[in-house]
Amino acid sequence: MYPVITVIFYYGEDEWDGQKDLHGLLGIDREEYKLLKRYVPNYRINLIDPRYLESLECFQTDLQIVFGMLKYRKSKVKLQNYVELNQEYFSNIDYDSYNAVRAMLGSEQGLKEIKKETGGINMCQALEELYQDGVEKGIQQGIQAFILDYTEEGYGKAKIVEKLQKRFSLSKEKAEAYYKEIKKE
Q: Could you tell me the pLDDT band of residue 116, with boundaries at 50, 70 and 90?
């Protein structure tokens, strides 16, 4: 006979609100299923939520790293420190672990695959590019708001382009390109 152990790896952002035993999970703890209770053993559910793990060293596989990222995902500083501490691992992460991290962090579209010659993926570079994409998006939103505000105040194209150059340290060509893009010229 082989023992059966039920384990749930929970990586949701909200607190676990599900049952912690098999009867509750299957819904047979209700009165109308009283007969089934005699035939279905009620096992305790072992819940693993990375946020509450004190030590990740008990995991000797890639789960240790994945759970570490999940544990620190709410704190940019702690996550950055964790990635830097494990930079060697994240610089050459295997494809399956990379996909697990992407899925569990909800970053399926955000993180890009940056493959290495060794066949692994450089997640450090992927995280840096994701950060840079966010910075660029923020700059573009700021420029868009800037242009729309000055347009509403009655400024013409030449004056807005001049102000863009000064405010965002842009070349005249780049400022004009942003203006054309936003004003759909």
A: low
**Range list of β-strands (E), 21-160:** 46-48
Q: Which residues of 67-77 are buried (b: 16+ CB within 10 A; e: fewer)?
A: bbbbbbbeeee
- In order of 20, 50, 75, the CA distances from 45 in angstroms are 5, 16, 29
Instruction: Tell me which residue range forms the domain holding 73.
Output: 56-133
In the chain, % helix, strand, coil (3-state, to 5) comes to: 55, 5, 40
Per the structure, how many domains does the chain have? 3
What's the whole-model pTM score? 0.49
Tell the residue number behind the tokens 């579209």, with chain if given.
109
